[in-house]
Design goal:
The two termini are 24 Å apart. Helix content is 10%, strand content 42%. The chain is globular. The protein has 2 helices and 17 strands. The chain is mainly beta.
Amino acid sequence: MRRLWGASILGLGLLLAPTALAASGNWQQGDGYVDVRDITPEEAKRKALNLARAKAMQKVLGIRVRKQFLGATTERSKGGEDFAFDELSTSLDGMILGERNLTWETSLIPGGPNEPKIQRVSVRGEFQVAEPPEQDASFRVDLKLSRSRLVAGDSLALTLSATAPVHAMVFCMAADDRIYMIYPNPYRQALTLEAGKRVTLPESTDGIELKPQTVPGHDEDVEVLRVIALRKPFAPPRLDANGSTSFTEFFRWMATLPPSQWGQADQVYTVHRAERD
């Protein structure tokens, strides 16, 4: 079986040319910081950037930012001070179409009594926030996972269904700040759903396995699977040789979806690093 999730996936040919961007976006400032505690500086940088994105989205969308997709982490030092941050797990009602003027800073802050100083990673920048095109209220798409907590290398199965005939695409919003297209792929060129019929993936004829992995050096990652369902075939986003695209390019593609002809379903999962022998 061929593994996906980090395997090389070639970009697919376009089906229909996308329309012009549906939203120009609202530029907002956002900032975030994360202390390097039991994580790598690279992981802290990613978390800080996601927090800055979330803050910019909240300025535009307010309470429409869905809290179930924000993972809150609070750590208490021996001195009793709270360190808290909200990490955007990448699935929100809004979209980040662009990022500019990102300013990074690394500093040392006091630790607890008799403890060394703590490294803090901070970022400030401007983010172009927009709302996605209106979804189709006449049908619903559903996504379920065989499990929501995995150890790296565990197999994952997806069950999809829709209340109307649709063409579907499945994306992994990964912890390395990239979006990977899982379906369609070079081994299954099209994914269609019949009304009311459940499809569990991968199917035996797909010749692949879905085995999420942690980012190298990470003990745990939180990722999102997103299904986009459309009434008619539509061009996927442009992908690199690994079958991935950036967050901003992915959201810019979402902004071209035909209004009232598409739907979305998300599921969050956690993948833990495999124990060493």
